[in-house]
């Protein structure tokens, strides 16, 4: 079946990744219940991280071709800013979107770690905001990384689509 062919391709891909030293451990669901259990585990990661350490969250994206080098560079740079941290990247590796969370002792949490990671994202041609958008907490970062022309275009679009300013008032584009 087509599913069997896909599974074989995925297994071959994992073998190559293991042999290249890119993967330390992996599993593929063999049933719907295993798939559901793996998805449940993934969904619980953010909550577990929040209870374990101070959690510096990054919702970023980089080109898929840059993902492995971004993770290595991001981990080294974050460790340089906050010695003793643990990086916990997870998420949507297949499309370049990534939750690149930095876990640190509560007394080590530092905004410099966020800026350090975002600088690396920018060098890789990525975005500091992937699936969750800019929100209220990334406005300063948006203004730092988006070129002025793009910011002006965003303002123009906001005014064109919401001339009365009733859609999400007081947010990024007021």
Plain-language structure description:
There is one protein chain. The chain is α+β, with helices and mostly antiparallel strands and 174 residues long. The chain is built from six helices and four strands; from the N terminus they run ααββαββααα. Strands 1, 2, 3 and 4 form a four-stranded antiparallel β-sheet that branches. Strand 3 and strand 4 form a beta hairpin. Helix 3 (67-81) runs antiparallel to helix 4 (111-123). The mean pLDDT is 86.
Count the DSSP helices: 6
- Spatial extent as radius of gyration: 19 Å
Strand content: 5-15%
Contiguous uncertain segments of 5+ residues = none
Gap from first CA to last CA: 53 Å
Order of helices and strands: HHEEHEEHHH
What does the overall shape look like? Answer: globular
The counted number of beta strands is: 4
What is the subunit organization of this protein? Answer: single chain
The level of helicity is 40-55%
Mean pLDDT: 86
The main sheet comes to: 4 strands, antiparallel
Structural class: alpha+beta
């Amino acid at each position: 079946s087509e599913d069997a062919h896909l599974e074989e391709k995925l297994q071959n891909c994992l073998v190559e990744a293991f042999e290249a030293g890119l993967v330390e451990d992996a599993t593929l669901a063999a049933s719907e219940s295993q798939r559901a259990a793996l998805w449940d585990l993934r969904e619980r990661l953010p909550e577990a991280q929040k209870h374990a350490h101070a959690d510096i969250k990054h919702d970023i994206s980089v080109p898929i071709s840059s993902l492995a080098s971004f993770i290595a560079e991001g981990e080294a740079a974050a460790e340089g800013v906050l010695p003793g941290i643990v990086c916990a990247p997870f998420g949507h590796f297949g499309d370049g979107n990534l939750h690149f969370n930095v876990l640190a002792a509560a007394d080590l949490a530092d905004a410099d770690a966020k800026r350090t990671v975002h600088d690396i994202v920018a060098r890789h041609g990525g975005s500091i905001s992937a699936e969750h958008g800019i929100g209220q907490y990334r406005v300063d970062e948006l203004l730092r990384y988006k070129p002025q022309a793009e910011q002006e275009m965003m303002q123009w679009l906001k005014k064109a689509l919401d001339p009365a300013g009733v859609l999400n008032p007081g947010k990024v584009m007021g």
